[in-house]
Structures are given as C-alpha cells and as structure tokens.
Amino acid sequence: MNIKQLSYFVQIYQRKNLTLASQDLFISQQGLSRSLQELESELGLLLFSREHHQMIATEAGDFLYRRALPLLAEFRQLETDIKANFSGSSQLKIAVAPGILRSLSIADLLSFQTAVPTIQLEIQHASDLSCEEKVRTGAVDLALSVNSEKISGLAKTKLTAENYFILMGQDHPCAQLADLSLADLKECNFVSFDESYRMQKNFLTMCQAAGFTPKIIFTSNETTTLAKFAIASGSLFLGVAHIVAEIKLPQLVARPLITEEKWEIVALRKTAQPAKPQISQFIEFLLQKF
Fold first, then answer.
1. What is the DSSP letter of 19?
2. pLDDT 10s digits, 55-107
3. Model-wide pTM > 0.70
4. What b-and-e string marks burial along 11-48, b requiring 16 or more CB atoms within 10 Å of the CB?
C-alpha cells in the first residue's frame, strides 16, 4: 500500500463512483479500477461493493477511510513544509458563500491558518452563484458554497448537509402540523432568498418536481428580514437547521420538511486541471472539522 493508492481510494470513497473519481484525478477509469483492485488484493479485503454504478464502502472501507485521511493530511503537510522551506510559503484563495459561515464558523476557517502556517489564506465573501463564477474564472482556487444538480463544469466535494425546515408565524395554519410535505404547501405564499442564492433555485426545483410553482411574494438576502416578513404576511420561508437555530423571534416556529433533499455544503474547484496540493489539504482539513 502506498500514498498514491490511498489517495485514489479516498477519492473513490468520497465520490462513490469510479467515473467521477477518475475524472477528478485525471486518470483513466481502467487505471483507477486497477489501482483499487491491487490495493484490495494486497490487503486481502473488499473495500467497496458495487451497486447500480455506485461504490458503497464496506466496513473495512470505512475503517481505511478514517485512518487514511490523517495519513494523507500528514503526508501533504510534509510536502507543503518541504516546499515552504525551499521555495517560500504558498497562497490559497477561497470564496465563501454567506450561508456557509453560519454552518462553518470563521474560527474554523482561520484554524487552518494556525494548523498550516505555510499556506496563506485569502478569503472572499460572495453569493453562491458568484462563488461558482469566481472558481470558473480562476479568481479563486476554491469555493465553499451550496450544492445543486445544476452546477456544471466544477469538481464538487461534499462536506456536510443539513435538513430543510419550513419557518412561519405561530398563527399560520401549517404551524399546527408536526411536519410538512411539499404537497401541503401548494396554495401558500412564500418569502425566499434572492436569485443569487442556490437556496431559491433548489427550492424551485423541489416544488416543480412536486408539480407546482411556488408563489414567492418577497425576496431578500437577509435571514431575519425574511423571517419577519413571513410572520407579518402570513407566508412561509424555507430554511435549514442553522437558520432555525440562529433566528430568535418569539412568534416564529419551524417545522421539518419531509423530503429526501438536503442542503449540502460543497467545496468547488476547477476540473480542467489537477488540484493544487494546498487545495486537497484544505478540503481534507474541513472534512475532519465536519
């Protein structure tokens, strides 16, 4: 077992698909499959089961992944330290969407700088769609944003996920229900984050899949404003767990939304070129945080 095999294994584990993992690694699917087979043969263990084109980790695969992450981080730290000692420190430019800083604290981001002083972080704050565009244009090396099936041309690493909730005033009829399905909401008015945020676009997609287009009467990029407008107008507001925890309004109630969809935080980078070592190191650091 060597570092390259472990690195390939981790990418397969995270992507759960050989084709996607091979694209991220810029190697052929056959080469990646051969590397995995050699690793499994050397260990005498099956690390994945193959189900409907998905790679599902076995118990041994889960164990190896947990142990491999710190090993790879330490190895890349060694690479970084060697380069820093002989060629100076490196820089990592990242863009962070507003919602991400409610789920992942600024202190968490800055702790990477403390842990890896040889990599200098330059952090920009931007809307979800702006984060994506900054990665595509090369303005930043990496973006932390909200996942969507409509994001194209970028490599995605899922970091964490939160459940959806419907927020409303305590006098709204839906407040009497323990939880809500999209079918319960067809005749309701909504307030929403504006169109520069993936939350709105993902919500529209969810509603359209349920057979209706939601009536959005007010948009904003400020959560407390949306919550206050929802209470005053008798409207509903789609939020997630960290928004429910953040907003402290006595008249506001939240009910779980019954859906298989999740609000996912992803790390986005270009697919057209191999990731810089510091990008991989930063992503692995965040995965351990979550």
1. H
2. 999 999 999 999 998 888 888 778 766 765 665 557 888 999 988 888 887 88
3. no
4. bbbbbbebebbbbbbebeeeebeebbeebbeeeeeebb
